[in-house]
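User: Just a sanity check before I run the rest of the batch. Below are the structure tokens for the first item. I only need the designed sequence back.
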């Protein structure tokens, strides 16, 4: 038990180690992984930022920003705890397999089982008090964070890589949600590509549980091929559609 507790504390202490942070910031591979996490967070969570905005809409203007700020703070605290605990637990084989299978289920349900005509998670204005609104935003933030944090574990096991990817992703999602929504509106196939990437990450996590490790070069090549191919196919599809209409 003492060894378990010691290993658990050592895992969290990585957050406060300058050597670990320095090694993270100076490794180009880590920045590639962080960029992947930010992109994934932005594509999957842009609409979530708008849901949160609707949740605080009934509050006075000055309280809206405070409620969203407290929600953002809560999201960071949740990530800190989840990443610290998760990078320790994800070393256990059956947890890796379970996490990978859950990611595959997320992707499958969104790609093949999502019903058209859903309200997209519309949140009605309940007129809650300030602190009850903050609590609702915190709960919603945590719910939104679970899937992205789990997906992050399939990409890396370094606490600072996961944390930086997570906090930058959340900041970006809150700050430029409209940009991501316009991007998805312009290239709707990107949303499906994001879930295909989750399938890749889920398979990578399961493979890692059985000792098969995919190199960073192959992983980044797959990402570039997925998103590059999606943009090219979308462009060709629009050009073909335009030529059909013009004929």
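Assistant: Here's the designed sequence for the first item:
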């Amino acid at each position: 038990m003492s060894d378990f507790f010691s290993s658990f504390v050592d895992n969290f202490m990585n957050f406060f180690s300058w050597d670990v942070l320095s090694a993270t910031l100076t490794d180009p591979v880590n920045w590639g992984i962080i960029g992947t996490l930010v992109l994934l967070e932005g594509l999957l969570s842009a609409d979530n930022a708008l849901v949160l905005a609707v949740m605080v809409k009934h509050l006075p203007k000055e309280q809206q920003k405070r409620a969203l700020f407290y929600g953002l703070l809560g999201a960071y605290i949740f990530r800190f705890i989840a990443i610290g605990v998760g990078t320790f637990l994800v070393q256990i084989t059956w947890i890796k397999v379970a996490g990978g299978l859950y990611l595959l289920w997320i992707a499958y349900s969104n790609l093949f089982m999502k019903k058209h005509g859903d309200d997209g998670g519309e949140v009605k204005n309940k007129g809650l008090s300030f602190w009850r609104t903050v609590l609702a935003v915190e709960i919603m933030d945590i719910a939104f964070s679970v899937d992205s944090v789990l997906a992050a574990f399939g990409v890396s096991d370094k606490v600072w890589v996961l944390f930086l990817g997570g906090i930058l992703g959340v900041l970006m999602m809150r700050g430029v949600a409209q940009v991501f929504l316009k991007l998805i509106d312009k290239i709707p196939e990107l949303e499906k590509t994001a879930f295909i990437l989750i399938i890749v990450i889920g398979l990578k996590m399961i493979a890692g549980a059985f000792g098969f490790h995919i190199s960073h070069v192959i992983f980044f090549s797959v990402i570039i091929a997925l998103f590059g191919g999606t943009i090219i196919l979308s462009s060709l599809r629009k050009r073909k559609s335009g030529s059909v209409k013009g004929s």
